[in-house]
Amino acid sequence: MKQMMKMMALGASVSALAALVGCSQAGPMATAGEFEVEGKVYGMPKAEVFREDYRGDAVVGDTMTASPHLAKLDYAGNKTHQVRLDTLSQKVEVAPGVSYTAWTFGGSVPGPVLHVREGDRVVFTMKNRSDEAVLVSEPGKGAAPFYRQMADNPYQKPEAAISPMPHSMDFHSGTVAADDKWRSISPGETIQFEWVANYPGVYMYHCGTSSVLMHTAMGQYGAVVVSPKEGYPTEADHEYVITQSEFYLQQVGESYIYDHQAAMANNPSHVTFNGHVSALMDQPLRAKKGDRVRLYVLNAGPNGTSSFHVIGAIFDRVWYEGNLENEWRGMQTVLLGASNGAVMEFIVPEDGLYKLVDHEFHDAERGAAGALIAAPAP
Ligand SMILES: [Cu+2]
What we know:
It contains 7 helices and 28 strands. It has about 375 residues and is mainly beta. The structure holds copper (II) ion.
């Protein structure tokens, strides 16, 4: 290992490196400067920071959806995804009558769900548009599915806002040098970098600009689902994405603002599934008796744990962090630390109402509750 590090420092050729780590040549995904270890690709090109005159959609990518939706991957093998997710200030609602000016990726809290396959490459672009009033409701032609799904969600009616601030993007699904790819950019700047989805899983992305607690609590987080190369071994009838997160808001006159003292004290005003206390209550998930339901659950925190439970069901299979190597059976509750994720499946036993809760009930009472309704297809 020491020898390998030394050779890297000397600028060893990719083929020499590949030979050292046990592969005869770089695989089809690796390009100049990159190397592979056990089929995983490392050594991405340097990030680029530049200025561009871009006024288009803040969310670009055909597998970018709004929670709880997950895009179907309608291609075989691997592909390169061109993904854009601009940072915007937006006024969003968290509970009836409770709105605040959030810092967001793409205009929603949580931000869009990105779905890729293990081995796919993501070419990512982000413009810091926190100094622009960007309307999320006017997407261009051929827009990401995210926009149509947002329009159908009564709890995500964001209004344009301006709150200039440096921001950054940290994808937990990427393996890169954070000081290069995850660096902060100023309002008006754009950053572009690449990562390869080396491991399957349910991952968090978030702003990593200091104070990270403040930037994430202000709304800058979302989920990346990296499906295993060969898929999961079961056939799911429904797939839903649920992101749990805390909000720390205090009322000032008519409006609400972020309360850093409350965040430091881990005393949230609201804890939500998919960004609103009613998101999965008034618009419950749907299934039929006998269906296998697959949930992709991310606990975005930023502080708390989630003891995720479905009342009346047992998780038939759980893949912790979404990796097939981490399989559990017959789980009543899955404990997720801040930024842990899991794929959880259960069989719907009969028609009825199934509540989804954080079984840490002080969080359920702050809003971390949802519902799945099982009924015959209309
Ligand atoms: Cu930020």
